[in-house]
What we know:
CATH architecture of one domain: 3-Layer(aba) Sandwich
Shape: globular
Structural class: alpha/beta
Number of strands: 20
Radius of gyration: 23 Å
CATH superfamily of one domain: Acetylglutamate kinase-like
Bound molecules: adenosine-5'-diphosphate, aspartic acid, magnesium ion
CATH class of one domain: Alpha Beta
Helix content: 25-40%
Amino acid sequence: xxxxxxxxxxxxxxxxxxxxxxxxxxxxxxxxxxxxxxxxxxxxxxxxxxxxxxxxxxxxxxxxxxxxxxxxxxxxxxxxxxxxxxxxxxxxxxxxxxxxxxxxxxxxxxxxxxxxxxxxxxxxxxxxxxxxxxxxxxxxxxxxxxxxxxxxxxxxxxxxxxxxxxxxxxxxxxxxxxxxxxxxxxxxxxxxxxxxxxxxxxxxxxxxxxxxxxxxxxxxxxxxxxxxxxxxxxxxxxxxxxxxxxxxxxxxxxxxxxxxxxxxxxxxxxxxxxxxxxxxxxxxxxxxxxxxxxxxxxxxxxxxxxxxxxxxxxxxxxxxxxxxxxxxxxxxxxxxxxxxxxxxxxxxxxxxxxxxxxxxxxxxxxxxxxxxxxxxxxxxxxxxxxxxxxxxxxxxxxxxx
Length: 401
Ligand code: ADP
Ligand code: ASP
Ligand code: MG
């Protein structure tokens, strides 16, 4: 029998009724001749609620204990879904990440999956059970429960599909992958398919419809991924290997992220040792910088800007104090109301002129950007957050997204 891994996200299992609907859908699929491995997320906003509870106890909760707490969310859904299936007359078994053999690094709250001892899952499939696995969690070499980072159930599902050498279907609260998040641009068009590379860029730039590491694994192990609405009644989007000739559109997707801040260090004495020192310290402090720009030297001084996650703000403030002691003439500005807008498209590898069209959109609509970076298939700009809505609409219209 063919195996398929299915994953249901938080909104798809948000209530008892929704869990029962998922069970009915699984039964139909089982009856059509499939062996099912089902990965579930915590019900609705359970993970957020658990985090809030932890924060009420401690400003800085122990990450090990946080993982213990957060993992209970998906455990609850998996057991309820297995009960629903059994109640409907079908054999099922709920497994925690540990019971499913999911081994991770010991990095609490953001662990990566190292391997899956898949024989346990295969054994239950052989017994003709529907195997329900709590997503987003695993176990480290010390026997401690770990979690995979927000949105990590996608990663659990794709990793299982890679190990079982089967397709992965991700059911969520939108009809598939759109050129732009349909919640911020309702006119967005649904894509029939998108390449791993494009989806990887979009996910890492903030399109949370699928978690970045899930796409990475999908690409590495060539797992066909399908994303669709949880009813299963509307055709969704396939993520697969594509080449430029199959991809007629030059721009496939647009993302906007408010997660970063921009730091500008003015008046840096222009010598490579100084600049190297700044970026070395950022690296040592584990501050993940993204866009970097530097002005041309004027009278021996330059201004340097970079973006970094807002969650690193405290570390950046510490670093600024340290730099001011070492380089007395610098002046530092931290801007938090910036948005990173990116366009992604495989077609950019072969077709030129995307940057020119974007510059024209910005010029025609009086949108000022602060930084630009490009990769082979993406262009990103930082703009003021006040211009975000306008930029999204105008760029989406220009590229018919
Ligand atoms: P789940 O709980 O099922 O994992 P998520 O909330 O993590 O669901 O992801 C689905 C959400 O992703 C959608 O509600 C949508 O707002 C958002 N999203 C962001 N970018 C896109 C996009 N390009 N296409 C579709 N959905 C997107
Ligand atoms: N429940 C976890 C979260 O909310 C994992 C997931 O849903 O994928 O991030
Ligand atoms: Mg998700």
